[in-house]
Amino acid sequence: MRDALRAFLRHPSGLIGLVILLAVVAVAILAPLLFPDSPWDMAGAPFRPPLTPDLPLGSDTLGRNIAAGIAHGARVSLTIGIASTLAALGIGVTIGILAGYFGGRVDDALMRFTELFQTIPSFVLAVVLVAILTPSIATIIGTIAIVSWPPLARLTRAEFMSLKTREFVEAARCQGESALAIVGRHILPNALSPIIVTGSLTVASAILLESALSFLGLGDPNLMSWGFMVGAARTVIRQAWWMSVFPGLAILLTVLAINLLGEGLNDALNPRIARKRG
Amino acid sequence: MTGILAAVGARLAKTVAVILLIATVNFMLVHAAPGDPALVIAGQSGATDQKFLDTLRAEYGLDRPVAVQLGTYLGKVVRFDLGFSYRQQRPVLDLILERLPATLLLTLTAFSLALLGGTMLGLVAGTRAGRWSDTAVTIVSLVLYATPIFWLGLILVLIFSVRLGWLPAFGYETVGGGMTGFARVLDILRHLVLPAATLGFFYLAVYARLMRASIIEVSHQDYVKTARAKGLTETQVIRRHMLRNALLPVITIAGVQAGTLVGGSIVVETVFAWPGLGRLIFEAVIQRDYPVLLGIFLVLSILVIAFNILTDILYRIVDPRIGAVR
After folding, report:
1. 3-state SS string over chain A?
2. Is B139 helix (H, G, I), strand (E, B) or coil?
3. Which residues in chain A have Cβ-Cβ distances shorter than 8 Å to B22?
4. Beta pairing partners, B185
5. What Å distances lie between residue B220 and B127, B225, B253, CA to CA?
6. Three-state SS at B179
7. Exposed site from A108, A125, A144, B194, fewest CB < 10 Å?
8. What span, in angstroms and rounded, lies between the C-alpha atoms of A149 and A120?
9. Measured between beta carbons, which residues in chain A are less than 8 angstroms from residue B297?
10. Is B41 in contact with B60 (CB distance < 8 Å)?
11. Do residues B120 and B110 lie in contact, with contact meaning Cβ atoms separated by under 8 Å?
12. Quick one: residue B43, left, alpha or beta (phi over 0 = left, psi -120 to 50 = alpha)?
């Protein structure tokens, strides 16, 4: 563990990612204290540029405070990113375990199924699913999970395939442990670190996916989200650049931070792979 | 010869099977929608009269067992009947075919741009690992990789259309320009630059990172050491021994990512009012025009399969191993 920490600290990029991400998390947690009024309320005159008193990032076409929108949007992005990744992990890891541990026909069938999902253009499927199920936080989380699990399933399967023939697993099997115990107590803990790394990168892509959906008007209509803010402001970009620039920057910084953190984790948890990468 | 024919045949059979499976997913989506599937097919227009819904139920066999319904639906798909848009009062296939060329132009341009630019940047970074040009490429691709595609489009519009006035901000060609021949082609190309760059940049970042890692990996291989040992110049080593081998994993991933590239075109077309399928899907979402949505979903899935076949062919052209045709 201390080695992992040292490896993580050796590359500054992971640390930079962690710091930015913690700042975003802090803004998300403190949003109701920093901006107690609803981000949907009018806070001043419309079309105010940044650095106006009380409106540090300006106001939008309806006089809403952009800074407040960004702070409340952080809650939405992080919640949806994490919840949909957890759901995708649930689907992907389960399918990966079944395919990798049992192999044979089960593996064949599950992998064909996974390949089919990888052929389908995932964003198009997400748009169609959310449109048909009507946008809400639950359908958005479910949809992002449905289009995000295949890489996690393939990764888990590969880990299980290589681990299940190892001696410690053979030993557990000889002692008569049940399949469930072997999977849960012996194989899964050893497969965990690449799954954690890929999971953290999935959070980043889920946030991008959510922002693109709400940009197209497929976000939860009750939640102020970054993608929605950019989408609502794009028609006035000639007059008011700040309305779309700042929410977009928030997405960029958050996703970048998570990616950096994920790579740092990768260097720390999978030292063999990290070294091979040069 | 028979080997190649058999391979092509197997590939075709697999493609048809995948298309039918995707059509089945499509069918399931209609039934996953809350409420009456007949209403879904009609596009949930509130004022639909009962007689019309009954006609639809009869046409799609909605009062019959689900298996029969699926058969009816797949039969329609096989005959290129993607249904009818009751919102636009036109067959879905007509609507799609009208928009397909613009989407093909955009996605193919973006794909080539990303693959060419990405591998070149990755080559530069990988062969100069640790130096400033490597660091620059790494940082730029990290940032591009985290940039929401619709926002990048808006930023490019801000810079190149609003501030500098160099390129048009939206559309496919100048409306009412009355241009013909070469002038029209040039006009379309000018309109293509920003959307294609927007869509391509994200993948350019992906391919640059991959190519960099791949070049570094290849440079430790024995055959590269041998090539250096026998006195080839560094350029010769790169061109004859490293480039093709390093390209293979990049092309593989490019094939896997084709789906997301096609999906990204929806967002880009919305930003730039590009008159392709992405624009059509956006309109269909707003109007809850499900037959159009599902039709586009099927056609874009087929487009992804076409991209996969294209990357397969590329792979075989690039693969330096003798007799690599599998």
Report:
1. CHHHHHHHHHCHHHHHHHHHHHHHHHHHHHHHHHCCCCCCCECCCCCCCCCECCECCCECCCCEEHHHHHHHHHHHHHHHHHHHHHHHHHHHHHHHHHHHHHCHHHHHHHHHHHHHHHHCCHHHHHHHHHHHHCCCHHHHHHHHHHHHHHHHHHHHHHHHHHHCCCHHHHHHHHCCCCHHHHHHHHHHHHHHHHHHHHHHHHHHHHHHHHHHHHHCCCCCCCCCCHHHHHHHHHHHCCCCCHHHHHHHHHHHHHHHHHHHHHHHHHHHHCHHHHHHHC
2. helix
3. 116, 119-120
4. none
5. 12, 7, 22
6. coil
7. A108
8. 13
9. 121, 124-125, 128
10. yes
11. no
12. left
Show the tokens assigned to A191: 């497969």
Taking CB atoms and an 8 Å limit, are B148 and A227 in contact across chains?
A: yes
**Residue A85 and residue B311: Cα distance in Å, rounded?**
30
Contact A125, A146 (CB under 8 A): yes
> Which CA distances in Å does B80 have to A110, A192, B61, B123?
30, 46, 18, 44
A74-83 per-position pLDDT tens digit: 999 999 999 9
Best A13, A115, A120 member to test B by mutation, with max B CBs in 10 Å, is A120
Considering only the beta carbons, identify the residue of A121, A241, A260 that sits closest to B262. Answer: A121
Residue at A14: amino acid letter: G
Q: Cβ(B113)–Cβ(B196) under 8 Å?
A: yes
CB neighbour list of residue B263: distance below 8 Å, 6 or more residues apart:
A121, A122, A123, A124, A126, B300
Structure tokens given for A92: 């992907």
For B256-304, write each residue's pLDDT tens digit. 787 788 888 989 999 998 999 888 888 888 777 878 888 888 888 888 8
CA A156, A86, A24, A43 dihedral sign is positive
Query: How far is residue A210's CA from residue A225's CA, in Å, rounded to a whole number?
Result: 9
B92's enclosing H/E stretch is helix B92-127
Alpha-carbon separation of residue A176 from A167, A179, A187, B275 (angstroms): 14, 9, 15, 64
* Terminal-to-terminal C-alpha distance of chain B: 12
Q: What does the alpha-carbon distance between residue A110 and residue A154 come to, in Å, rounded to a whole number?
A: 10
What is the C-alpha separation between B308 and B79, in angstroms, rounded?
24
For residues A74 and A78, give the distance between their C-alpha atoms in angstroms, rounded to a whole number.
Answer: 6
Residue type, A180: L
Residue with tokens 């080839």: B232
DSSP assignment of B238-276 equals IIIIIHHHHHHHHHHHHHHHHHHHHHHHHHHHHHHT--S
Tell me the residues of chain A between 3 and 22 that have a Cβ less than 8 Å away from chain B: none
Write out residues 178-207 of A within 8 Å (CB-CB) of B: 204
How far does the CA of residue A185 sit from the closest CA of chain B (Å)? 33
- Residues in chain A with pLDDT values less than 50: 274-278
**Closest Cα in chain B, distance from residue A275 (Å):** 11
ipTM (interface pTM): 0.88
B11 sits in which H/E element:
helix B2-32
Q: Which pTM was predicted?
A: 0.87
Residue A96 is predicted with a pLDDT of 94
Q: How far is A269 from chain B (nearest CA, A)?
A: 19
